[in-house]
Amino acid sequence: MALRAPRRPSSSRPEAVTTYVKRNPLLAVFIFATCVWLVLGFWNGHGVASYYGWAVFAILGTKLGLSLIPPRQWDPAPADLRVGVVITAYNEDPSYLSACLDSLLAQTRPADRIIVVDDCSTNLEGHRLAQRYARSHPSVTPVRHTANAGKRQALATGFDELQGQVDVFLCVDSDTILEINAVEEGLAPFSDPRTTATTGVVVVANHESNLLTRLIDVRYINAFVGERAAYSRLGSVLCVCGSLAFYRADVVLRHLDEFLEQTFLGQVATVGDDRHLTNWCLTEGRVVLAENAIAHTAAPQRWGHYIRQQTRWGRSFFRESLWVLRHRSPRILAWWLTLVELAQWLVFSSILVYIVIVHPLITGYFLLGEYLLFVAVMAMARSVRYFDVKRVNQSRSSRLHSFMVTPVYGYLAIFVMAPLRLWSLLTLRTSVWGTRDKGVEVRASSVSSTLRTAGRPAEVPDPRIDGPEVPVGTAPGLVSDARDTRRAVAV
User: Transmembrane residues, as ranges (predicted)?
Assistant: First the structure.
């Protein structure tokens, strides 16, 4: 029988935790019900639009109800469960990478190994920083690609390094800062042998930088404690977030060749890695959300960065959704959930065209004003669980401020996101990182000092001080044929 760590009461958490989730179902239900009452009063009697309003709130209400069901209290993961971290980096601010490594080294459940893969950034500062961490911490191994190959290949390099040494892969981005207990909490669902992957709650580190980061923060929290929490109750989270993704190593390695060789419309796929790995994990078991595993990530602060990111994510959404519908069986719940998500987008786009173009031509009456009101209230209804995420460095007024600007995100979804999704659909063959191609996008100066010092900082030299290069060899194991030359690392 596998050894188990002593069970810790679910209500306890380390004092160093800066962010946590605390459900407030009465507040969420009250706000949601108020939104329903406001909107349906306007929509009743508008035919198709009225039915659409009822359908939207039926779906949102179902997701809210599922997300408010108390999550399962997992036993601690077996004490002998080995975990290896893969950090993928490309043109990252070294200060973010340093904070990421500090947070990993300060975990209540330390990782057995940490692989830092630099995908041939335009400068060596981040790679040299990882080398200096490696001198002070034997668990850290820096690797650098000789050519930019994309995040998927960067992950594969890390998997190669860890092959046969760990039971769980933890994949994080180089701008991810973990709460001190994130690894411990993220591993807990693996106490159930049916669990093949987990994700945690990812929130925005620079959420108070400007209006855009506030909007993204609200959207992130809704996506995790709302949508992913709902699907987690069904064991079918559709996408394990790449900022904080736990996978059973044997599942990933069984499908690694397919993961690397995936093509779409004749083009090799290099993005959409997290969603594709999730699809394989859903094939073999359950994918769930660990609500107490929390991480912070850097959100785009400029519109250009945000648009490139969303375009890339849109391509991943369409490609992987179509892959599921084509290659997976309707006998698994994830197939039907994927169909619902695609249908929602199609219906949303069709209704927008109907309201803006078709309805005025038929009736001579323009519904745009009512529709904009509907979108504003719907955005607030989708975000009712924003208040369930507590930050020690965020005041109540700041949380209220962020929630009150959610209607702006609704309009963003109409006037920016909808066209971007369509553009993503039309450019599905494009496979690039999409962000940071011209250098660092977000600086760590936008993150509060409370967050940067959440854990016990590792004692390493200042990242601005140069040090000698540490030779790194080619990863053992799966590097065996022509396609793997893209994963070669610098020596």
Answer: 26-45, 51-69, 333-356, 362-381, 402-423
